[in-house]
Write a structure and sequence with these properties.
The protein has helices spanning 26-41, 124-137, 148-164, and strands spanning 46-48, 58-64, 67-79, 83-88, 98-103, 105-111, 117-123. By secondary structure, it is an alpha+beta fold. It has a single domain, classed as Peptide Deformylase (Alpha-Beta Complex). The protein is globular and about 45 Å long.
């Protein structure tokens, strides 16, 4: 497990669509381990390949310490019409958070690290995190889900934080 450098917004790699995983091998497991170590060091609760400059469709979540979830090539297959609002942020824009509205429940399809097809239903915070990270795999950085005014404020807060070091 290696802690990798996190790509910071507005790096163009955060707007790129990640490529599907083609090999379910030791390299994929190492990447998942590196994502977990990097996320914990950040700290954060979710991270994707693009967050460390690896444009591959891999998500690691740890919403509860010790309960690690790994999703390979996840896609939302169903989303509820009902929505919830939750405060979000990113390891690529640390220190900036804002409330985002998303579907309250989702169903996702994905593969595990062995390549086996899986499906999962999620609601609440898990649903929010899955949508947030899958957006990132699709090149949609979380602030794009904000109104223009809130997005501009978030960008200004981030620039102030970056100037302070």
């Amino acid at each position: 497990m290696a802690v990798r450098e996190i790509v910071k917004w507005p790096d163009p790699r955060l707007k790129a669509k990640a490529a599907p995983i083609t090999a379910f091998d030791d390299d994929l497991r190492r990447l998942a381990d590196d994502l977990l170590a990097t996320m914990r060091a950040a700290p954060g609760v979710g991270i994707t390949g693009p967050h460390i400059g690896e444009l591959q469709r891999l998500v690691v979540l740890e919403l509860t310490p010790g309960e690690v979830r790994v999703y390979v090539d996840p896609v939302v297959t169903e989303a509820s019409a009902e929505t919830i609002r939750h405060v979000e942020g990113s390891v690529s824009m640390p220190g900036v958070v804002e409330e985002v509205e998303r579907a309250a429940r989702v169903r996702i399809a994905y593969r595990d690290l062995d390549g086996a097809a899986r499906e999962e239903e999620a609601e609440g915070f898990l649903a929010v995190c899955l949508q947030h990270e899958i957006d990132q795999l699709d090149g949609v950085f979380w602030i794009e889900r904000l109104s223009r005014l809130k997005r501009e404020r978030a960008a200004k807060r981030w620039e102030k934080l970056r100037r302070r070091g």
